[in-house]
Specification:
Layout (H helix, E strand, L loop, with lengths): L1 E7 L2 E4 L4 E9 L6 E7 L17 E6 L2 E11 L7 E8 L2 H5 L1 E9 L1 H12 L2 E5 L6 E9 H16 L3 E6 L2 E6 L2 E10 L8 E9 L6 E5 L5 E6 L1 H7 L3 E5 L6 H8 L4 E9 L8 E7 L8 E13 L4 E9 L9
Parallel strand pairs: 9-12, 13-19, 15-17
Antiparallel strand pairs: 1-2, 1-5, 3-4, 3-20, 4-7, 5-6, 6-7, 8-10, 11-12, 14-18, 15-16, 18-21, 19-20, 20-21
Helix pairs in contact: 2-3
Pfam family, one: YQBQ
Protein name: YqbQ/XkdQ domain-containing protein
InterPro entries: YqbQ/XkdQ
């Protein structure tokens, strides 16, 4: 069961009974999770109470007794034709995307740098993925989110791991991206009573293909190259350049720049809150060969509830590759 609460004028109100729809969206490039809610707002019938909310109002959502979202109302509007009031809220990661910082970091791990950034911006810190990799980086006039991701990107270039920030209530956490959701599979099989999918949209494209990377030093002298001959033979040469960085293994970084054919998958299914951006899910989809038994990475998700009917569905944007929102 879904429930939604609002703090307005220092009073907590359960607004679930007047809510028409709830939608909670995440995306690896969006950073902050977004909550879209529409509730009834009677204009002509003065006997019906009006639920109040305004920008800045605190809002939280509870699913089956567990809080899944806490944030701040960002905007609202009144639709007199439908006598409804839609509003949008973000979780507290929004403050890291709206405020800028400047730091000259020297020999500091991304996790410690994140603590300094959050301290300056007044954001609480929860569990941060440890890297143990010390980084030297000038961060100038970047948002707090960009600064954190830029620091973690430098670690990712060395250890190959992917990272993503998430909120736990009011606390910022950074997790390793790509953990597979346990005991759950997206299923679409012929005559299978465990089917939980509603539909699929699949697209593949050569946009983003890189099959050769030439490496240069800081004086633009050729150093070496990495590539994938089979991709180049099949699709044609698409080349990128990389300038060596003093504190990084150039071959590791250049290899990480190689990119295969891009495949975009969007799946609609019965709702499961564990299926969120930053995690991975198993698939068994009989009509797409490379999804018949695959692990897919969730790069975007939208969970939608209709409280009056109990209907709960989700739409997932899935990727074959586990990639963070790299910065710098």
């Amino acid at each position: 069961m879904i429930k939604i609460f609002v703090l307005y004028d220092n009073k907590v109100t359960d607004i679930t009974n007047v809510v028409k729809s709830i939608s909670n969206t995440g995306d690896k490039a969006q950073a902050a999770r977004k909550l879209d809610v529409t509730f009834t707002y009677p204009i002509w019938d003065r006997n019906q109470p009006r639920t109040q909310i305004r920008p800045g109002s605190k809002v939280w959502v509870v699913l089956d007794g567990k809080e899944i979202f806490r944030g701040v109302t960002w905007n609202r509007e009144i639709d007199s034709a439908s006598e409804s009031l839609p509003f949008m809220a973000y979780d507290y990661l929004i403050y890291l995307t709206k405020s800028k910082v400047t730091f000259n970091f020297v020999d500091i791990t991304p996790e410690d740098a994140t603590r300094k950034i959050c301290e300056e911006l007044g954001v609480e810190v929860g569990d941060l993925a440890g890297t143990g990799i010390k980084v030297k980086r000038l961060i100038a006039q970047k948002t707090g989110y960009e600064a954190i991701m830029e620091m973690y990107t430098q670690a990712s270039k060395q250890n190959g791991k992917q990272y993503i920030p998430v909120m736990d209530g009011t606390k910022l956490c950074v997790i390793e991206k790509g953990k597979v959701i346990a005991n759950y599979t997206l299923i679409s099989q012929i005559d299978d009573p465990t089917n939980n999918m509603i539909g699929t949209n699949y697209r593949d494209t050569l946009d983003g293909m890189v099959n050769k990377v030439k490496i240069y030093d800081d004086k633009n002298n050729y150093v070496g190259e990495v590539g994938n001959d089979s991709w180049r033979n099949e699709y044609g040469l698409i080349q990128e350049n990389y300038v060596k960085e003093a504190d990084k293994d150039s071959n590791v970084v250049a290899t990480g720049m190689l990119s295969d054919i891009q495949q975009d998958v969007t799946i609609q299914a019965l709702g499961n809150w564990e299926c969120r951006t930053g995690y991975a899910v198993n698939t068994k989809i009989f009509y797409i060969s490379n999804l018949q038994n695959a692990v897919m990475y969730v790069d975007g998700d939208t969970h939608t509830w209709e409280p009056a009917t109990g209907k709960y569905t989700m739409s997932l944007n899935l990727s074959y590759k586990n990639q963070m929102d790299s910065k710098g």
